[in-house]
Amino acid sequence: xxxxxxxxxxxxxxxxxxxxxxxxxxxxxxxxxxxxxxxxxxxxxxxxxxxxxxxxxxxxxxxxxxxxxxxxxxxxxxxxxxxxxxxxxxxxxxxxxxxxxxxxxxxxxxxxxxxxxxxxxxxxxxxxxxxxxxxxxxxxxxxxxxxxxxxxxxxxxxxxxxxxxxxxxxxxxxxxxxxxxxxxxxxxxxxxxxxxxxxxxxxxxxxxxxx
Length: 211
Fold this sequence. Notes:
By secondary structure, the protein is mainly alpha-helical. The protein folds into 2 domains: 4-33 and 155-210; 35-149. Helix content is 71%, strand content 0%. The protein has helices at residues 4-20, 24-32, 40-53, 58-71, 78-84, 87-92, 99-115, 117-126, 128-132, 140-149, 159-167, 173-184, 188-200, 205-210. Helix 3 runs antiparallel to helix 7 (99-115) and helix 12 crosses helix 13 (188-200). The chain is globular, with a radius of gyration of 18 Å. The protein starts with a helix and ends with a helix. The model is unreliable at 204-211 (pLDDT under 50).
């Protein structure tokens, strides 16, 4: 049986942790994004962020993302990226040596340029997880991550949240976050962010919370 009390207590601890680490802006940002309102720049930026973070520490990507953004025309438009390739990709290689991931960012820009942003967005709005998985380097978990960052009210089943939800007896990350949402009134995607940051910042967080 799922331990709802521990889930809520952990979320309270996670909120305090966000306050201590000065991450108010992260929470405020997630609360402010709305899925139907994302624009071309948002799609390019968040796709790149999720692709770069996959398999890498978030802290590593945080240190280089401003430079990557500058190389890719600060995500102004798909046309800007396509028209400056390969210079944009080659400049980004100076701080991030994974060429195939950088190429995948260009491929997404090419698709948006070729099909048109509004056509791509319509497909994403109709089937967020399915459509986002057609992007290079985007799988089931990263599709949920990208959809969340674009404002969809979803929880991503990454390893930190999946392990924690399982230990507390929940059938999925969605059930965990939705249970907390029902009790707190907070959005599922915001709960995902707060719990994920708390768990990823700690060593063996599940054991500590159950002690």
